Amino acid sequence: MRRLLLRALLFFIVSAIFSRIIAMLASQRFDEGDESSDDFRRVVVMDGGGLTSRAGALRSGEVTAVMSGVRLDLREATLDPAGAELRLENTMSGLQVLVRDDWAVSVDDQLVGGGNVEIDVPAQQDLPENAPRLRIRLVTRMGGSVIGTSERFS
What we know:
There is one protein chain. The chain is α/β, with parallel strands linked by helices. Helix content is 19%, strand content 45%. Strands 1, 2, 3, 4, 5, 6, 7 and 8 form an 8-stranded parallel beta sheet that branches. The protein is elongated, with a radius of gyration of 18 Å. The model has no long low-confidence stretch (mean pLDDT 88).
């Protein structure tokens, strides 16, 4: 019995190490852009991560989170005059997106297999017609996603 438990423990440890290495390699291979980039991509697997964008003309962003915690802060960014689009995939993760309260934010969210999506942004009709436009396409699978304008979601 003791031998069986030791084997199971060893298998668990080796599997955890192998999974962590694969996750780090995936993040390094697929991440693009930095805080000043107008286009970026983040892949976060079994880790914490995120980005505080200071883009001068943000056009697009993509975040894939798997069993992670991700914080994406866009409040210091300026959107491209034509607007910007975010594509977010959240699988068994916690995802927080912070946006400015003077942006017209539209969210196309899809909830798969449970989870929760909370959206707290100003209504578009309450903003000027020429407000910068951000479109978010969000898929949440068994995770929690929050899109809002304030740190109260931290």
